Amino acid sequence: MELTLGKTQFNLVYNSFSFVIASMGAALLFFLLVRNRVAPQHRTAVTLSTIVVGVALYHYVRIFGSWNEAFSFTNAKFVQNGRPFNEGYRYVDWLLTVPLLLSELVVVLKLSKAKTRSLVVRLSIAAVAMIALGYPGEISGAHSSARTIWAAASTLPFLYILFVLFVELGRSLDRQSAGVRKLVDVLRYIILATWGVYPIAYMLPSLIDDQSKALVARQVMYSLGDVLAKPLFGLLVLSIALAKSREDGYVEAGIAGSSQIGELGARVPDDAREILSS
């Protein structure tokens, strides 16, 4: 059965995709511009944030195009024209960006090499498993039991990720400053809150009888979750990198130079007075 959307429904999804594209583009530009304000040893995390929003920007442009191509405007309604909306773009995006998101949180803390490697590898494997197990259910029928089964399977690696972030990573924060520990706590709860949006959106086709409403709600919720989980997450990682840079005594070259010029300017009048008095 062909899906039919009202103008408001179609435009709600259309505008949500547009908002995500703008958010990812703005975040990409911002991370590139502020990268040098972070000490060199902490820039890897900011680079990962930049890659995440860049990859998401590309995929949302493809998602946006697929949405427009999947519907035709007929008799004051948008009717599915036989071209399927490609949900695969979103899952490919998550396969790439979710492991990077988790990695940037670990990398920015500058733990021991062995601990960093262990956490990154295990979190990345769990993230890939979570996304891969969710996809078969996403493309299954609206009221198919397969959606519930795959959702349950995808939840297992998600719970493992939470265990690593809240238990194992928590044990590694003793040597971090109070400010950094507070920011890490905020990041972990943002992961818990924002990632909680995705399973709700995932199950909407099984919960809502009207599949047009379920489709619209799912796409809008996924879009909202991506904005919170990528640009916002990246901003908090940047905050941690800046805090650790200040703790290390790092001063951006341009700022240091202007400070030295200011000190030199303050000394010039005193030197001039000494010369005139002599």
Structural class: mainly alpha
How is the largest sheet built, in terms of strand order?
Answer: 1-3-2
* Average pLDDT score: 86
Number of domains: 1
Biggest sheet descriptor: 3 strands, antiparallel
Strand percentage: under 5%
Total DSSP helices = 9
Low-confidence stretches: 256-269, 271-278
Second CATH tier, the architecture: Up-down Bundle
Radius of gyration: 24 Å
Helix content: over 70%
CATH topology (fold) name: Rhopdopsin 7-helix transmembrane proteins
CATH homologous superfamily classification: Rhodopsin 7-helix transmembrane proteins
| CATH class value | Mainly Alpha
Q: Any idea what the shape is? A: globular
**Total number of β-strand segments?**
3
Distance between the termini: 97 Å
